[in-house]
Please model this.
Amino acid sequence: MRVSHRIVLHFPPAVTGQPIVYRLVRDYGLTFNILRASIGPEEEGLMVMELSGDEEAYRGATEFLTQHGIQVQPLLQDIRKNDERCVDCGACVGVCPTGALSLERPAMTVKFDADLCVVCGECVPCCPVRAMELRF
Amino acid sequence: MAKTLEEINEKIRRGEVVVVTAEEMVHVVAERGVARAAREIDVVTTGTFGAMCSSGAMMNLGHSKPRIKLGGGQVRLNGVPAYAGLAAVDVYIGATALPETDPRNAVFPGEFRYGGGHVIEDLVAGRPVLLEATAYGTDCYPRREIATWFTLQEINEAYLLNPRNGYQNYNVAVNSSERTIYTYMGTLKPRFGSANYSSAGQLSPLFNDPHYRTIGIGTRIFLGGGIGYVVWQGTQHSPATPRNDRGVPIAGAGTLAVLGDLKTMCQRWVRGASIRGYGATLMVGLGVPIPVLDEEMAAATAVSDADIQAPVVDYGTSYPEGRSDVLAYVTYADLKTGEIEVQGRRVPATPLSSYPRAREIAELLKAWIREGRFELSAPVARLPGADSGLLAKPMPNHPPDRQAPPG
Model:
């Protein structure tokens, strides 16, 4: 049976140099559509993609990814910034891998750009006042 | 010509006082010079808003019928243990206290969703808090158990009593290790992936009165949205820390112990906080007005981010071991650009204390003073200064199995 899933991949720094997506195509015959990606040398990488193909092959592919230290997370969430709770401290800005959370200078207020967000969820537990919310 | 504090207060009463924030004072002095600024500006307001772990609330809950002696017993507020080793119904809840049931770091990094700081926020927000206590019972206090909801306005005294707030400067935290670490300085990415700092810099109270000339015991302040007082030097007060040419300490130095009526505070300025992998705490808003008595104070309050250095310390290696080797010094002006240089590496820098909220506190305090709602108070005693030689000491190390107690 053919399946299609939207997933978030977390790449540890050691893996970002490897041609992982190519293997998904060659070894598992899957088709992919990269929705968002943030991958650089020696950094933790993030990729949001739609993977489609045979159900069995898809299961094998996710096992392959997990074995390579890549965390696979279903994309069925959305991140929101609750402005009532936010105190503009900046604790989230340092952990955001894509720059979706940034400081507006010189005011130093925290700005959230949902278009840059890959829903990695790192900001949610890092926010001291729980202003970053995961919506399903 | 020098002004006295009483002359400034008289101007406040007449509605003629001239107040600027510490941020504005930088520009005032740059444009008009120190001498003119000293004549024209009466008060400079400061502010800071961030996690201050050494904070807590003292409460008197009133007596129950029949009476219960909480002292020597066990007390929980919304499940969070409070200190009751005082008279019958006096209770102190610290910002970092956690329920016995909190998993802490058992699943690492822990979330610390609810602790003492959150209880204090709930009280300030007017929400009911559940008191649960057990006691041993005496002839005069026979009751052994109690459970009741209460709100802040229903109890007798309730005041924030923070043994250490308003640190005069602080470390910039980096992480040289191979893994992400979760510290009180926030989440730090491995291999110098991030630098976190926690000071309002030029807006922070003690940077604007580096030798504690006007900030002392009895100084009236903005605390948590209400009015409070400096009651002592804060714990770990280290005024003898090395200072730069301006007299500004180049590492953590002076601290303040502060007190204020919890019933006059508001939730915007008293916020429970959860520091991932570290613990629960309280974010506190603190602001101190500084009288511009003379040119020395005008010059001191004109301090800018570029004039203040902070030490970069490795929380991945040296800090946990009890050392604080300095990797570099950077200014708050450098930090606010969003990137600093540490031993040849470019490291993204982000704050942990809210600069917009610090500015808002300084603006609020300015408005209060202009409207005649807040007069300045002269300290009744000074805090120990640099000449005291005072530096925070490490914990004594006399393990009982190895040697006799000292002395």
About this structure: Chain A has a mean pLDDT of 89. The helical segments of chain A are 20-28, 55-67, 123-126.
